[in-house]
Specification:
Length: about 280
């Protein structure tokens, strides 16, 4: 099986898993985000450990999962935001635990353990807030929540993938001028422009169906996704290049790992959510 076919089949599975999971029901929405978050954190820690730095992997993933779970209950109105204070002793525990681990570079370990939470967990913690208390696209299965819509997240991923597809196809056929060759040799300005154009076209076509904001704002969102998503991809490429890796994992044949597939998300979604919060 050649790489294009393998990549296409895996891509189809990713679409079903992500869109199906976030769109199906509030419970599947929570579980889908949880799986992606934990998988991406695990891959980040594995990559860092490959450099000889022994991170607090279990504690770091548990902290990320805890933050995401608290965010879901806070967004749904089930608990008070003061429960976020639970994360303070968790962070302090990580610092104290490093005293007993006897690592050669304890602050490297601590820095990478905490950075994963900021880099990966915090952006995913915004997902529940974009769905609860929002109206628009309905879930595929009925639920008791009258104010829950996965429209922002579903629209975000559709536009992100449209940008990726447009950038890939345009870059392969017309790419001549490198975007940032030092970090990612294959990315081109032609590909970037192609990604923006396709994302804008899809935004125009799907804006009424997705709801939440009007067509003009979905167009702005598509441009924001194209720009910030590209930076997210470049940041992860910078990480992999600095430690000599091609992919963050192998769970998705032709696409790498969780972090490879969702590197754009962690940098792009916070900007999209902020835009909708301020101007939606």
């Amino acid at each position: 099986m050649n790489n294009f076919v393998r990549r296409t089949l895996t891509g189809a599975w990713i679409v079903v898993f992500v869109l199906g999971g976030f769109w199906l029901h509030p419970v599947s929405f929570f579980l889908t985000g949880l799986i992606i978050l934990a998988g991406a954190q695990y891959e980040y820690y594995r990559m860092i450990e490959g450099t000889g730095v022994k991170v607090q992997m279990i504690t770091g993933i548990l902290a990320g999962v805890t933050a995401y779970t608290i965010s879901t209950f806070v967004a749904s109105g089930s608990i008070s935001p003061t429960l976020y204070l639970v994360l303070i002793p968790v962070m302090l525990f990580m610092m104290a635990a490093e005293l007993y681990r006897k690592q050669e570079k304890p602050f490297d370990s601590l820095a990478h353990t905490l950075f994963s939470i900021l880099y990966i967990a915090v952006p995913f913690c915004l997902f529940p807030f974009s769905a609860y208390s929002h109206t628009g696209l309905d879930t595929l299965l009925p639920h008791s929540r009258t104010t829950f819509s996965p429209g922002i997240v579903v629209g975000f991923f559709i536009l992100l993938w449209a940008n990726d597809t447009g950038a890939y196809l345009t870059g392969m056929t017309l790419g001549r001028h490198r975007l940032m060759e030092r970090i990612s040799p294959k990315k081109s300005w032609e590909g970037f422009i192609g990604g923006v154009l396709l994302s804008v076209i899809i935004a125009c076509l799907l804006s009424e169906w997705l709801g939440e904001v009007n067509t003009f704002k979905w167009i702005i969102i598509s441009v924001l996704i194209s720009v910030t998503g590209t930076y997210g991809d470049l940041v992860e490429s910078m990480l992999k290049r600095s430690i000599g890796l091609k992919d963050s994992g192998k769970i998705m044949p032709g696409h790498g790992g969780f972090l490879d597939r969702f590197d754009s998300t962690v940098m792009s979604f916070p900007i999209v959510y902020l835009f909708i919060l301020l101007f939606g």
